[in-house]
Structure formats: C-alpha cells, structure tokens
Amino acid sequence: MENKNDNFKEKFLNYSPDEFPNGALVTNDSKIIVYVNSYFTTELLWKVDDIVGKNIDILLTKPSCIFFQSYIIPTLSHEKKCEEMQLTIFNARGIRIPITVNAAVGEDGYVYWSFFNSSKRDQLYDELIKARERLIETTDELKLLASIDDLTGLLNRREMKYQSNLALKDVLSEQHLAGLLILDIDHFKKINDTYGHLEGDRVLKKLGQLLISQSEKTDLVSRFGGEEFLIFRPNTNRDDMLLFCKKLHVLMADIVVGTISLKGSVGVSFFSERMTFDDVFTQADSALYNAKELGRNRTEIYSNN
Question: Which intervals hold domain GGDEF (predicted)?
Fold first, then answer.
C-alpha cells in the first residue's frame, strides 16, 4: 500500500523556489548574485540577466546599502544568519519597495536570502501613526473644551482652581506676593430681565474680553460662574492690585447696556504661606460682600480686623 507521506515527499521534491510568494536570492562570498527565483521577474520586473552576476548592492537603496555593509554582513559573518532585517530595494523601474529580509549562510558558503514585500506593513504603520496623531489632536480638543467657559472663552471654574493651585506652588516657593480678585457685575439680573439673555450674554463676552486685554500673560482669568469673574495675579502687591482694579472700574463703564454703563463690585485677598486657593477665595468673597454692602461699584481688600 502506498504510503501517504511518500506522496507528500514526492510532491515536495517537485517544488522549486519559484513556487513561493516571496523573493529567493543566493549570493556568493563576494556578494555576487548567483540565483534569483521568478519573484524577481514577475513582481520586481527584473530580467534575470540584469541582476544575476551583479553585486547585490545593485538592488539596494543607498541607506539600505550602508546598513547592509555595516550591520547585515558583519552579523552574517558572526552569527551565520540574520532575521527580520528591514531594507528598501529598487524594482527594475526604480521604484522603492520596503522589504523584510531573512538570510542564512549555507554549509556551501553561499548566503540564502528570502525577501518579503512589507509595503502593506509600512502602510499599516503609517495609518497607525496618523490614527495616533488624530487621537492626540482629539484629546487636546476635548481637554480644551473641558477647561474653558463656552460663552467667554475664559477658564472655567474647575480649570481655574486647578491652574491656580499649580501656580500657587510656584508663588510660595519663590516667595512672591500673589492676589486673587473676584469681580461681580452689579445688578446683572436686572440686565437679563430688562434687555433679555442675549444682551446679558453680550455683556459677559465683552467683560471677558476686557479682563483678558488688561491682564498680564501670567494672570489666570476665569468666569467662575454666572456673572462672577476671578483673576489670579501671581506677582502683585496691594498698590498694584488697587491700581489694576481702579482701571477695571473705569473701563467697565465703557460697556453700555441700554443707556447705562456697566458697573461691578470687586473683592480682593492675598495669598500667604500655608494658605490654599479655597482659603483666599473665601476671604476675597468676604471682601466682595463688603463692597456690595458699602454701595457696590467699588473694590474692597479683605481684612481680618
């Protein structure tokens, strides 16, 4: 009875390197190509006579040729094989094709090479890189959206507290005097009730733009909620802060609602050692309350006396 394994062996013996869907190439110890399979003619469009008998360098791009000489040849000399080397070769039309190469030195001293076209792998890498870049951009956009106030473009409440606490560490370590002011628009509800919420939104936007334009680059400016704005000033003092607030009162009056100039009340407090953002906010809020109690449209600095 005929042995099934014998049939496979007989069939296998009839195969040649031309049957495989990859390039097969043999070089001698002088790196001269002595054999190529049909992959080089069908897929890479080379004529056999144009490459057999030539140095293997004829196939390689200049960077690949340098890598071939400086790494692959020494590796083969020492290890007798190399695997998954990345090279770029030319086809007969001069088109660059990325390939993955395995090679081994045979007992006869010839080097047996297998070339695998890795164009699709490189395309996949490119797509993965682009997908990663898109993901980073989307993440940055989401972070930005999560940190700003939609209406005014200023920092929102959460981001203000987060960034102020970060800035506060620097201020305390460098022993700078930092201040926090809370500005609340006087009688803002009356603006909404009289002129509508669209007009109220316009006023909030204009005031936000004003605060940004008058603040230093190191200041943190926030719409903390409703008609309440916060400014964290990391390098200031009492006189500087009062001058800044006085300027804001004057410029706010240029924002007109109907026939009335916009006005606001301001509470100020300063950071000192071991104080948290919440501590200073509470003090500035107390000063704001005093400003309103004293008739509004004024600035009060917190005092514990």
Answer: 176-304
